[in-house]
Design a protein that fits this description.
Number of helices of chain A: 12
Largest interface: A-B, 32 and 36 residues
CATH superfamily of chain B: Thiamin diphosphate (ThDP)-binding fold, Pyr/PP domains
Helix content of chain A: 40-55%
Order of helices and strands of chain A: HEHEHEHHEHEHEEEHEEHEHHH
CATH architecture of chain B: 3-Layer(aba) Sandwich
Shape of chain A: globular
Radius of gyration of chain A: 21 Å
Strand order of the largest sheet of chain A: 2-1-3-4-6-5-10
CATH architecture of the largest domain in chain A: 3-Layer(aba) Sandwich
Distance between the termini of chain A: 51 Å
Distance between the termini of chain B: 24 Å
Oligomer: heterodimer
Mean pLDDT of chain B: 96
Mean pLDDT of chain A: 97
Shape of chain B: globular
Number of helices of chain B: 10
Structural class of chain B: alpha/beta
Strand order of the largest sheet of chain B: 1-2-3-7-6
Helix content of chain B: 40-55%
Strand content of chain A: 15-25%
Low-confidence stretches of chain B: none
Largest sheet of chain B: 5 strands, parallel
């Protein structure tokens, strides 16, 4: 990766996530013989102009055809290529949603999706181009990691990490625009799945992701002046969600989630699910299909397999109540 | 092998595959995609009996069944080629089996991809074909789609990608059996119309009798410089069993012992 210091961090922030995506991919291409970067006619918007001219053999635009884009990427991944695919967030997560489900989710082909301009960063281009629901949609498909870098430096680390390791399919969600403030002035320890505590606090816990991490740090200063001590955590990996988040939740009575995403299905929902299942005064037992592709069979067989027949449901509930009772005694 | 022997062998193979297809359909006791499986049996017999160079460890050619509901046709070919043992085969459409109505990717069984959602296999095949070109790998990619499947827009996205990347190592076989789930296909999607459509997209588009072994043998070897090939295979849904032919009840139908006994008399 490029030298990560205060000067470069400022420069990357000025260039913005899309231009920097193209820049970081240049370094990755130097190191990776098997790299392929695919676009559906948004190479320029992905900051890939220089990449195209420097590595023409590692670049492919399939034209404005996102569904086809995912299928072609999957075929290349099957043959051992390290594949990064870029388009705007809704065009990947919605137009090609079922292709993502079949090729990345069901077949687990290790394609990395880079969703540009997610959240509301597309400004006047409007809701057709906004990434409002992408986390919600991708999160509901099994087997896909979801990363949402807080700034360009973190994006570089995430891209590098995915290119060097075999974690399986991924969705990398880019928020912010050129000039969005950097969170990290210097290099730091990044690990997929491991949230980063940026500031210790004792009164409230703020969990933020993507562009909202920098805004959380701004808010923290004002809260501090109001004698509120906030702990700030950068949740750069939305899936899988770290167990460390549970530990954090157990330490605070007030938790705030901040994200540039719809209130439905994103970080708020992820944390609400955790609180509901483990930290609420009301005990919630979810009985549902799991977050993985299961077996096939008759309807009765499948309901039984997933514990969705009345008899098994009752056993599950009795067990749940028993545990609750003994927990209360403790 | 001389031509006459080969024709005889492949005809026998196709007949054996039809019998197996019916056996597993009967054995599972569930409705199965018999009609659209039978329409591709001769194509699959020629591919797996002669054209494709395959081995579990290092396949040279690749076959993708985009028309996932044609799986019974593929399944019987994989069994006859030694990929799937009888014991596994007979688990078709039983609880917890890996062998169900649509293919689930399985290198051990020689199944290249998971399908079932139509219109996706050709893009995957385009990706494989581009990878072969980049790695200077020998071998050809075959993708089988249905005529009804050609209503899916994504098929045509992939068709453009196939010509744009000059994929002369890619062949699409269009199983034109003239029916889809709800009945006969519209005449605007006839085999003639589909031939022109693929031609219009820049493919070397060739009409073929999908049940004529010699013609299939010749046309599936077609190579056109810098262009992918589309084999427009004119087939009969339910081919080989008179009461199933062009009877769309067998798109997804349950075979009884009585009907099975009647059917195998015709093989």
């Amino acid at each position: 990766m490029k030298i990560f210091d205060e000067k470069s961090s400022k420069q990357w922030s000025r260039m913005g996530p899309r231009a920097m995506f193209g820049q970081f991919m240049l370094d990755i291409a130097e190191k990776n013989e098997n790299l392929m970067v695919l676009s559906a006619d948004l190479g320029r918007s992905s900051g890939l102009d220089r990449f195209k001219s420097m590595f023409p053999d590692k670049y492919l635009s399939v034209g404005i055809s996102e569904q086809n884009l995912i299928g072609v990427a999957a075929g290349l991944a099957k043959e051992g290529f390290k594949v990064f695919v870029t388009s705007f967030a809704p065009f990947l997560s919605m137009r090609a949603s079922e292709q993502i489900r079949m090729n990345l989710g069901y077949m687990k082909l290790p394609v990395n999706l880079v969703a540009l301009g997610s959240g509301v960063s597309m400004g006047y281009l409007g809701n057709s181009h906004f990434g409002l629901e992408d986390v919600s949609i991708i999160r509901s498909i099994p087997n896909i990691n979801i990363s949402c870098p807080a700034d360009c430096g973190e994006m570089g680390k995430i891209l590098n990490d995915y290119s060097e390791n075999n974690y399986g399919p991924s969705y990398i969600r880019l928020t912010g625009i050129p000039g969005s403030p950097p969170v990290y002035k210097n290099d730091y320890n990044y690990k997929l799945g491991k949230p980063v505590t940026l500031k210790r606090g004792k009164d409230i816990l703020i969990l933020a992701t993507g562009s909202m991490v920098a805004q959380a740090l701004v808010a923290e200063k004002i809260l501090s002046k109001n004698n509120i001590s906030a702990e700030i955590v950068n949740v750069h990996t939305l899936k899988p969600i770290s167990k460390e988040i549970d530990e954090k939740l157990s330490l605070f009575k007030s938790v705030i989630t901040i994200e540039e995403h719809s209130i439905v299905g994103g970080l708020h929902s992820i944390i609400a699910e955790k609180i509901a299942s483990s930290f609420s005064s009301i005990s919630l037992l979810p009985i549902a299909l799991p977050d993985k592709f299961g077996p096939t069979g008759t309807y009765a067989y499948l309901l039984d397999h997933h514990g969705l027949l009345g008899e098994k449901i009752a056993i599950n509930i009795l067990d749940f109540l028993q545990k609750k009772k003994s927990n209360n005694k403790d | 092998m001389n031509k006459l022997n080969q024709l005889e062998e492949l005809t026998k193979l196709a007949s054996k595959m039809r019998r197996i297809l019916l056996e597993v359909s009967l054995n599972c006791g569930e409705p199965a995609h018999i009609g659209g499986g039978l329409s591709i049996v001769d194509i699959m017999a020629v591919l797996y009996g002669s054209i494709l160079q395959l081995s579990i460890k290092k396949p040279i050619d690749r076959f993708v069944l985009s028309k996932g509901h044609g799986f019974l046709g593929l399944l019987s070919a994989l069994h006859c080629s030694g990929f799937i043992k009888k014991e596994e085969l007979m688990k078709f459409q039983t609880n917890g089996s890996e062998l169900i109505a649509h293919p689930i990717v399985n290198p051990k069984f020689g199944i290249e991809s998971s399908n079932g959602s139509l219109g996706q296999g050709l893009s995957f095949g385009v990706g494989l074909a581009i990878a072969y070109k980049k790695k200077l790998k020998e071998g050809n990619i075959f993708v089988l789609v249905g005529d009804g499947e050609c209503y899916e827009g994504a098929v045509w996205e992939a068709a453009i990608a196939g010509t744009e990347s000059y994929l002369d190592n890619l062949t699409v076989i269009v199983d034109c059996n003239g029916f889809q789930n709800d009945g006969a296909i519209n005449k605007k999607m006839s085999s003639q119309e589909l031939k022109s459509k693929w031609q219009g997209f820049g493919w070397d588009s060739i009409m073929c009798d999908g049940h004529n072994i010699n013609e299939l043998l010749e046309k599936l070897k077609n190579k056109s410089k810098n262009k992918p090939t589309a084999i427009i295979a004119q087939t009969v849904k339910g081919k080989g069993i008179s009461f199933m032919e062009n009877n769309n009840d067998w798109h997804h139908g349950r075979l009884t012992q009585k009907l099975f006994d009647e059917a195998i008399k015709e093989l």
